[in-house]
Amino acid sequence: MKQNKLIAAYIFAATLCVSCVDPHKEHNAIAESPAHIGEIYFSQKQAKEAGLELETVTPNEFRNVIKVGGQILPTLGGEQTVVATADGIVSYTDASVAEGSKVRAGQAIVTLSARHLQGGDPLLKTKAEYVAAEKQYTRAKALFANKAISEKEYEQVTLRYETAKVAYMAQASGVTSDGLSVTTPIGGYIKNILVKPGEYVNVGTPLLTVTRNRRLLLRADVPETYFKHLPSIVSANFKPAYEDSVYSMSEFNGRLVSYGRTVEPGVAFLPVTFEFDNIGTLVAGAYTDVYLQSYPKKNVLSVPVSALTEEQGVYYVYVKAPHEQEVYVKREVTVGMDNGKRVEITHGLKAGEIVVKKGAYQIRLASTSTTIPEGHSH
Fold first, then answer.
1. Dihedrals φ, ψ of 347, to 5°?
2. CA neighbor of 254 nearest in space, from 278, 276, 236
3. pLDDT tens column, 116-146
């Protein structure tokens, strides 16, 4: 009898212990059990706030990539230098003009004034020379008609008149109350301003450079060790040094122009050149990373660059758990080639799995707590 009472007491004590289990600790125990290690809870509200985007892993074509350095360049004839058409002191028609300002063809940009200089105003001199040459030409024309001067003398007077006329007319059309206006011959953007307001310049002095920027060149500098791969290059992606965006030739009507076939002495690189439309934000002269794309590989698994996170040289993606709306799993992957926009995955993913392509960093932050909230089932 005494033994039976003792057994009953043990059963009662065990019942009390079970009934006092903290429900939250119970959920923590579930989340930390071997079956759920690595699972991260990320609610639909969190996903919306983070702008979370998913992508289904699908085998597709992926081109081999050669990553090199390069530079964005203006096309030949795409730039023109505006020069001083007379001697004078420089002033700009718009005080806010700056490098990068948009200009139209024929727009007056600079005014040259020499009115208060010791040598006098060159325009007034040009006009005086023209008027004098015109009078001499009119007189010579009448004399030649009456055979009073030789044909050679008449031709010399005519030449002086035509020269003076061209010089004056070239300047007269730009005369304003402030001086002589200098216009840009093409429309586009100011690339370089070469003189400051108040500087004195002589005729022919470069004042500024204007670039059309309608078409640009991308020159990739490829190590000569890749020479045998150059004939297979068909396109390229590129990332300018001044921004994070990666652009593709296919987006801007780009085309391969040429690739080098000889190496110059002292240079270990071969140029590969593309031509493409400028979208208005690209800067000629800027250096860039270039991802040259050559022959294709079939049935390759890849993910967007934004899907990858890196920890001490190891790469991870976040995979949506099967049959779970708000649970993700951190997965180590092995990466292959990178074309700037997408990365080849050689190990760690299977076709049909769903990965986070935008918002991976936010999920990484959420992974500091693996607790599955109360009411979430498995």
1. -160, 140
2. 276
3. 665 666 667 777 888 888 899 899 888 888 8
Q: How many residues does the chain have?
A: 378
Convert the pLDDT of each residue in 186-218 to its tens digit.
Answer: 888 888 889 999 898 888 899 998 887 778 999
Question: What is the C-alpha to C-alpha distance for residues 226 and 295, in angstroms, rounded to an integer?
Answer: 13
Bridge partners, 95 (sequence order) = none
Give the Cα separation of 361 and 298 in Å (integer): 30
pTM of the predicted structure, to 2 decimals? 0.62
On the 0-12 / 13-18 / 19+ scale of CB atoms within 10 A, 7 is exposed
What pLDDT, in 10s, does the model give residues 156-172? 989 998 888 887 776 66
Cα of 310 vs its chain's centroid, Å? 25
Task: Give the burial string for 165-188 (b: 16+ CB within 10 Å, else e).
Answer: bebbeebeebeeeebbbbbbebeb
- Which residue is associated with the tokens 């006098």? 120
Q: How far is CA 376 from CA 28, 326, 327, 341, in A?
A: 12, 9, 10, 36
